[in-house]
Design a protein that fits this description.
Strand order of the largest sheet: 2-3-4-1-5
Number of helices: 15
Structural class: alpha/beta
CATH architecture of the largest domain: 3-Layer(aba) Sandwich
Distance between the termini: 59 Å
Radius of gyration: 23 Å
Helix content: 40-55%
Low-confidence stretches: none
Order of helices and strands: HEHHEHEHEHEHHHHHHHHH
Mean pLDDT: 91
Bound molecules: zinc ion
CATH superfamily of the largest domain: P-loop containing nucleotide triphosphate hydrolases
């Protein structure tokens, strides 16, 4: 029942089921894996499995406990996530205060720290105290993409559970509306293939819900790139400003990364399997001739640089101009 609603994570679910049936519930779990593959949903299903009296170890989806957890109103099941850029120390202190009290109604309280890497050093250290002296009858579930941005002392106190990227067929089935959330219109045709390819094994709702618009945006950007040697940056700058204003800036950077990754891969003789923009092979081949070998790699590296810089809020337009000139400087004229 409950756990079956999680798509494509049989291994992680199997592991959790074994923990449940052993009856030895650890005080902290760390769910590791890419975003949008079901980590948070699994944590909430686990809360149901631990607290549902109708179908213990699984959850029934029907009883008051299961329904409260699904609705996010169970007093002993809580999701803590970043308030702005970080999970702040006040959030961690508030949680510690609540955990000092006995649970309202749950046999096992479940606290999900979603995106645990967003704890800054102060909040991570404060949280460590909770981990070191875990309150009784409480399960802490941390979710994170990797352990890289977590304190080693936090990681070592949690039992890791790995979540894999989903297979392409699984993503296709969900995006097409054949699996998962029922009642939603599925994607089809070109838009479906575009979204599946860009999803990279993740169920990205933003991508699925805006596939048509984002595909047009990608094509608009490719058109701009096509005439790069004739185009002054002023014209590009206007577009960049428009994209940034509409909050599409992040997707544009992602598109640029995917594009130059594909070009670099092709010009290095890589196979088509790992290509993201499979629906634009003709244009990609042209570009792999325009940016042979290391030239493509130089452009790809520049995009990566731009992406990591944009996370620390540099002037987007200036950074984009820098990238634009790198591509212009490296691209051979269209044959
Ligand atoms: Zn139930």
């Amino acid at each position: 029942m409950s756990f079956d609603a999680i798509i494509g994570q049989q291994k992680a679910i199997g592991f959790l089921r074994r923990i449940l049936s052993s009856g030895r519930i650890p005080s902290a779990l760390l769910f590791l894996g890419p975003a949008d593959v079901g980590k948070r949903s699994t944590a909430l299903q686990l809360a149901k499995a631990l607290n549902c009296r109708a179908v213990p170890g699984e959850g029934c989806d029907q009883c008051p406990t299961c329904r409260k957890i699904d609705a996010g109103v169970h007093p002993d099941v809580e999701v803590i996530e970043a308030d702005g850029r970080f999970i702040k120390i006040d959030q961690v202190r508030g949680l510690a205060g609540r955990l000092a009290l006995i649970p309202f109604e749950a046999s096992r309280r479940v606290i999900v720290i979603a995106g645990a890497e967003k704890m800054n050093i102060q909040s991570a250290n404060a949280f460590l105290k909770t981990l070191e002296e875990p309150p009784e009858d409480t399960l802490l579930v941390l979710t994170a993409v990797t352990v890289a941005d977590l304190l080693e002392t936090v990681v070592s106190r949690c039992l890791p559970v790995r979540f894999a990227p989903l297979g392409e067929e699984t993503v296709r089935a969900v995006f097409a509306g054949r699996e998962g959330v029922s009642g939603e219109d599925g994607l089809a045709g070109e838009e479906l293939e575009f979204a599946v390819s860009y999803a990279q094994g993740r169920l990205r709702p933003g991508l699925r819900n805006n596939a048509g618009r984002l595909m047009m945006l990608r094509d608009e950007m490719l058109e701009l790139l096509q005439g790069i040697e004739r185009l002054p940056f002023d014209e590009v700058g206007e577009k960049v400003d428009k994209w940034s204003r509409r909050d599409d800036g992040e997707f544009i950077l992602e598109t640029l990364e995917a594009w130059f990754h594909d070009v670099a891969l092709l010009s290095a003789g890589g196979g088509e399997k790992r290509i993201v923009n499979r629906d634009r092979m003709e244009a990609l081949r042209q570009w792999s001739h325009r940016l042979p070998g290391l030239r493509a790699d130089a452009c790809y590296r520049k995009v990566l640089e731009l992406r990591s810089a944009s996370e620390v809020n540099v002037n987007k337009s200036l950074a984009m101009e820098d990238l634009w000139f790198t591509v212009k400087h490296n691209a051979l004229p269209l044959a």
